[in-house]
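Run folding on both entries below.
>entry_1
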Amino acid sequence: MSDLLTVRQLQELLQLDRTTIYRMLKDGRLQGIKVGGRWRFERSAIEAWLRASDQSFAGSDESQDASTGAVLPLHCIQIIQDVFAEIIGVGAVTTSLNGEPLTEISNPQPFCREILANESGRQACVRSWRELARSQGRPGMFFRCHAGLEYGCAHIRVRERDTNLIVAGQYYSEPPDEEEQARRVARMERELKLAPGRLGALADTIPVLEPRVREKIGFWLERVASSFCQIGQERLDLISRLRQIAEMTAIE
């Protein structure tokens, strides 16, 4: 069997506390094996992981990592986002500050899925998300997108600055005026060059959320954003330590 590291040895190597090591095991950022009920880590696997991490972030800086979303481990973020969207019953996405989606949209409504499948529609959604990212709204505040649907958002802050945005929405807070909705949908069909009536039928499936559910969205958005902040901070700390390790010495 290849040389194995204990949790304590890995802590000393990466300069991370035990809680962080176990959290990274749980979310898949670290791979380990159990020997006699205790976690062990193959030295060769850690060496390969360190090399890959160093190469992945070589030549970049933290501001660039943050602006492109590299500060967040997206495979972990996607899982949390999916669960949040399913429980609350809304669509959700994590974006860069430029409005570009970094994750797959969780629980998308058919109406929004149709718009996002159209390149012009997608760009309109990106512009809406960009405006949200630039907004200075207070927690729990809601906005309307280009299609007239309601959204809430929360900024993800790492090291005291905004890095990303989590958005949740694709619903009405109250039943829409039918004539107004029909005019808006017809205009969008013309702008997106869609067949007349294609969006109209899907608009009837947009949910109208009860006030109590709407209130929960703001609360849980802040909770999810806080979790993402913590994950992003841990990732940046780890990247910094990996670079220091790479500069000082290689594992022998």
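>entry_2
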Amino acid sequence: MIVEPTNKSATELKGLHLFHADMSNCSMRVRMVLAEKNLPWTSHHLDLRKKEAVTPEYFGIHPKGLVPTLVHDGVVHIESNDIIQYLDERFPDPPLQQSAPEARAKIHEWLQSATENHVKAVKTVIYGRKISKVLKKDEAEAAKYRALQRDPELLAFHSQATDGDGLPEATIQAAEQRLHGLFGHADEELGRHRWLVGDRFSLADISWVPLHFTLTGAGFPFERYPHVAAWADAIRERPSFQEGVLRWCAKF
């Protein structure tokens, strides 16, 4: 997705620039694709613990204040799964999507599922079980965020997760059940072939493996899903995982 920034300094950037965070699973996706394609890029790291993304300057680049943001020759791209598809199409060597229409459609389904379940499942469990206290906002920080943020879903989420008393246990458990369904499906697919879509590593795997990494750190019981565990172990050995994930976030 391309957006027109109000912070016009972004439009002056040449080459590939990534605004990202070490612990962000969405940032991990983009860093992995950049590594898979051996693309040079300029890092603009934002420390989420220090609320470095909650500034008028960054909201002027990304209208929701989220990471990552990719700026390519002054054009601002947001939404991580859109970014990795853009990178694969703009820099097609090596390709991370199959040419067959059916396989490409399945990859898109995995990307869409990751996007649709980001806040309602993944983010809910990670915040509820792991990082709400780390990213807790005091009253002044919460007021600053509310003044900048215009997205109602994110406002509602953060009003509980980081501004208030934390997400309700029932909400977290419902999110965990949703994740069990998603990874149960992934386990079935990986029992039939090496990667999420057939026998070629693709954007589908890159989209989902950061979720495995961060949810593992949040205590999600992946021992129930042996094929998923073996898949994640195989990806962990790839240079792109070492560079895109572990270099920035050795342990979640």
